[in-house]
Amino acid sequence: MADALSPPEVSLFLFLVKLRRFDDATLGVLRTLLVSKDARSAVQARSSLERFMRFESLRILREVADKDAVHVLSVLEFLVRAFAVIGDFESCLALRYEALVFRENKSGVHQWLQVGHTEWVNFAKDALDNGFYPIATKACENALLCLQRSDTSGLENFTGDIQNIVSLKDVAISSTGSCSVQAKAVKYLKRKEMERSKQQASTFREIQPVASVLFRDSIKKRNARIFSECQALRSAARNSHAHTKIPGFV
Q: What is the pLDDT of residues 80-122, one digit of tens each?
């Protein structure tokens, strides 16, 4: 865990979760863990808690799979609130969706669990705001199904709701398409950048031998010039020596 968290608080939270104490007291301990004056430590703490809760939540959901509906929903609510405190909105939305689907599946036996179209719409808006466009689209479809099932003879009473849901769904679908286009654009730019880098490397490899040839040629020319100058100096020295008169001789 992060250094900003005191060991007793960490141990207490882990202990309560492993005891399956899914109540406000445990959430209170979780909030305390995230109180930090050090921003970096707070980020590290949230990351550690996120990993722990993601792993532990899978075990918890397997354990309560055969429990009664009320117990399962209470556990899901706790997990949703815990992930919201941590700031893991992806897990939070995923578990909210699981809770809504669970209620839908159980509503045939327990009618009081039936999900209203407003709940699906609210969930769709939250999913849309957080960038989960496909799941927002699915939530809109579920909202429309709820309206169809609730009153097939009086859908004209929900004309405004239907239009709003359809508009929300269109936004989610267009946002999904926009993300796909952006993703393709990013891939295209990356590919072009790689091709450009390869081309530059190839050009460098082609230029390098030419540069080395020019360098060797310049050395040869320099050596030839020095040799020519030396030869000229030697010739001048010989000529000067031949014309020098020795004293005492005519």
A: 999 999 999 999 999 999 999 999 999 888 888 999 999 999 9
Q: Look up the pTM and report it.
A: 0.65
78: nearest Cα among 95, 63, 65, 103: 95
Report yes or no: 9 and 25 within 8 Å, Cβ to Cβ: no
Query: In this structure, is the dihedral angle defined by the CA atoms of residues 151, 157, 159 and 161, taken in order, positive or negative?
Result: negative
Name the percent of the chain lying above pLDDT 90: 40
**What is the DSSP track for 66-100?**
TS-HHHHHHHHHHHHHHHHHHT-HHHHHHHHHHHH
Tell me the two tokens of residue 65: 């799979």
Q: What is d(CA 170, CA 179) in angstroms, rounded to the nearest whole number?
A: 14
- Intra-chain end-to-end CA distance of the chain, in Å: 110
Instruction: Please give the Cα distance from 45 to 88 (Å, whole number).
Output: 12
Q: Tell the residue number behind the tokens 């393709």, with chain if given.
A: 184
Rg (CA), the chain: 39
